[in-house]
Amino acid sequence: MQPFWLCTPGFLMLAIGVLGREPDIGDEALRDVLTSNLCRCTGYQGIVAAMRAVIAELGRSNGPA
Fold it and tell me: Do 43 and 7 touch, CB atoms closer than 8 A?
């Protein structure tokens, strides 16, 4: 049986790559990117929510002061 955490490094690499290329990516496109990394322990909703939180935080930190 595969340990539950093995997909995490792949998700981190995907997140860095996709946010660097397309910071305003939509949910459907984001899910499409994320499903290229097999995860047996989630339906990707939590991962998409975490990515949305990162996108929101980056927008606040890069916005006008």
Answer: no
